[in-house]
Amino acid sequence: MNxxxxxxxxxxxxxxxxxxxVTNAQELLxxxxxxxxxxxxxxxxxxxxxxxxxxxxxxxxxxxLIEAYILLANANYFGGxxxxxxxxxAKANTEAIIENNTELIKESEFVLNKIYQRYNLLDFxxxxxxxxxxxxxxxxxxxxxxxxxxYSNALKILTEKKSLNIEEQITLSKIYLKNHLxxxxxxxxxxxxxxxxxxxxxxxxxxxxxGEYYFDKRSNTEAVSYYQKGLLxxxxxxxxxxxx
Length: 244
Known about the structure:
Elements lengths: L1 H23 L4 H6 L5 H4 L1 H14 L3 H17 L3 H18 L2 H17 L3 H10 L6 H11 L2 H9 L6 H13 L3 H13 L5 H17 L3 H17 L8
Helix pairs in contact: 4-5, 5-6, 5-7, 6-7, 7-8, 7-9, 8-9, 9-10, 9-11, 10-11, 11-12, 11-13, 12-13, 13-14
């Protein structure tokens, strides 16, 4: 019983600390998580989901409510729960349109189209990308080409960028593999593997891609080892439908 209460107390302190930090923050909730690659969003999306659901229930400000729905959509997305993520993102988008909040319309549409691509609903994401060709959407455009099997144009999109974030680098390594540029894929994945402050979601993707690299190189022992590491990290975030 004492152990239970000590754990409950610790969780309560963390939760209250989180609430205070976010309540006092002047920036969007999204910025706190999406730019921190070692945040709970990428390490424990279920935990972030709990926090986001709290704000959905308790937000009195419309903008905060929309941000909470987008954060919830991201938590479900990175946890592999795409149906729930789609529902959350659609609610955020509807509310943002009603409020005529340009920034949050853009944020919610970005998440929506990531989910459309996962479901291979490329016609929907195609319409979005025709009207939104900004640098921020380059990851969506690269994935659009990738899911169409146009690996050359997918590669061109990301290699022409001056700098890439973690997700873009992982996607680039995936495209290198599909273009049979194995040395470049291995070099980039090896660099990413050595990074310390990235969450379990990204570690899972890196190890699974290294498994794919070794499988393509017919090094089956190494391939199995890296696939196992990738699945271990996928289990840590309760991602039962992990794929690339």
